[in-house]
Structure formats: C-alpha cells, structure tokens
Design brief:
Number of strands: 10
Number of helices: 8
Distance between the termini: 30 Å
Number of domains: 1
Shape: globular
Oligomer: single chain
Strand content: 15-25%
Radius of gyration: 18 Å
Largest sheet: 8 strands, mixed
C-alpha cells in the first residue's frame, strides 16, 4: 500500500504517492493518464516493491487529490515543471539510486515529451511509456478541432468529455476493484487536448525541439495490439524513429491499460516486463 504526501503547495497543490520498499535497488517516477489518479497503480507499485523497486508518483494538476479544474492539465510547461519536482523529490528520498520515469497514456505523451524537453531529462537512467497518446483511435472532426482552438484562446480550461468505459480499458474485474473510484473523472480541457495532439504530432514527425546536445536516454515502449483508445500505429512510428534507443514490445490481445490486461488476461506479464527491463538495465552510478 502507498502513502500520500504533499509534493507541492504554492500556486497549486500536488499530492504525491510513495510505494516504499526495504533496500531498494532503483526508483520509478510515475505519471498517470487523463481522468485517473496515481493510486490506480497500486497493483504495479506493489509488484515493483516486491522486486526491490520503489515507486513515487503524483496526481497531476486537475486530477485525484491534487488541485485544479478537473481535466485541466495545462499548460504543458507547468506540467514539465511538476515532473521536475517529482524527480527532485525522488532523488532526495533515494539518493544515488538509478531513477526511471514511467508514464501511461496521456502520461506516456508527457514522459516522451519530458525525455526531449524536460529540464532534468538527463537524470532518469531510462524512460518507460505504455500505450502513449500518439494517435487516437477516435478521430477528431475538423470542426471540433477548430472549435477547440477557438475556445483555448478565450477559455483554456473549457471542458469536454473524455470518459472511456472500463470495458475498453482492460480487465473489468481488476479495474472495478480499484480503490478511490470517486477520484476518477471523464473530463479534459480544450487546452490539454490540443497540447496532447500537437506534441504527439511533433513526436511522430521528429520535430519536437530538443535543447542542448545530450543524447536521448533509452526507452521501453509498450502497447497492446487490441488497444481501443490509442492506435498502436503511433507507438510503432515512435519505435521506428527512436530505434537506436528504443525497445518496443507489442502485446497481443491486450487493451489500453496493458498493466490491467484484457478480458482474458491480468497484465502481470507487462508489469514483469517493466521489472525485468529495469533490473537488466546497464548503467553507471555517479556518486
């Protein structure tokens, strides 16, 4: 079970989560997806703990126990700054341990963005992105995109529906038993949506601005081929673009929340794959 803590309270309150283990070998920083909260990853965090990996996450702005308009996780610059704080806290709690940044869905979009533009992008030894928001299965009509652009200029926190039935996410039995269901919401602001779409396109086109000359860190990228939310073709494009630094696994029959499996799977193979990748990672610790 995790513990909650206050990660930040200034212009916005950010609530953190920690899955602490004895004698950890590494630490993972978690970035969740749209409409959810970090507590939904308790199953993953517990599996990490048992294997000697501590995990620290936070509820993004507009999500879970953190403050902000529900679904308004924007501007992206502020979100990247929040990731800075998450990494800094993890370093203070677990000094000199290898650190990994892991994001799912919208969190995967954010993590892939951070890998290229984050201030502390060279701190993580490696990055993990699962079912990242690159290409959405649901195509956005031109008129709706134009409306979103107009609304984003006058009211960036204007909300739209982003609710996805549990049946499309993974194993319903596992998902329905997750704690704090009341913290879930099916909303996304127009600004959050536009930033996600624009950054996803820039990632696919290889045009996301990369400050400095530091080489990109290794990436574990995974997605289910039965994902009904994000088109696997997006991950395939990223894997091809980043082939020198990317390990790509496509899971047959798994849905969007690959860590929660599908109607006939529980997703534990996915969690074990992340654990193995972290444990087998080749790195040098600089004290």
């Amino acid at each position: 079970m995790y513990r909650n803590f206050q990660l930040l309270e200034s212009d916005v309150k950010l609530v953190g989560y920690e899955w602490k283990c004895d004698l950890p070998k590494s630490v993972v920083c978690l970035v969740h997806g749209i409409g959810e909260h970090a507590g939904r990853y308790d199953r993953t965090g517990e599996a990490f703990k048992e294997s000697g990996i501590a995990m620290i996450g936070m509820d993004l702005r507009g999500h879970g126990l953190s403050s902000g308009t529900r679904g308004h996780t924007s501007p992206r610059k502020s979100i990247l700054n929040d990731i800075d704080r998450l990494i800094e806290f993890s370093q203070s709690e677990y000094p000199n341990l290898p650190l990994f940044l892991y994001g799912h869905s919208m969190g995967g979009n954010i993590v892939l963005d951070y890998r290229k533009r984050g201030k502390l992008r060279t701190v993580p030894h490696g990055y993990i992105a699962t079912s990242p928001w690159i290409i959405l299965q649901r195509k956005i009509p031109g008129y709706l995109y134009l409306f979103s652009e107009m609304m984003a200029m006058v009211k960036p926190d204007f909300l739209m529906s982003s609710k996805i039935p549990n049946e499309l996410l993974g194993n319903v039995e596992i998902i329905s038993k997750q704690a704090n269901q009341h913290l879930m919401h099916g909303k996304i602001s127009v600004k959050t949506a536009l930033e996600g779409i624009e950054i996803a396109k820039a990632l696919m086109d290889g045009k996301l601005e990369i400050p400095g000359n530091e080489p990109l860190k290794p990436l574990l990228l995974m997605q289910g081929d039965a994902d009904k939310v994000c088109d696997p073709e997006g991950s395939r494009k990223i894997a091809q673009l980043e082939k020198d630094q990317c390990s790509y696994i496509e899971w047959k029959g798994l849905y969007h929340e690959i860590h929660n499996g599908s109607p006939t799977a529980d997703g534990m193979d996915v969690i074990r794959a992340m654990i193995d990748w972290i444990h087998n990672f080749k790195y040098e610790i600089v004290s």
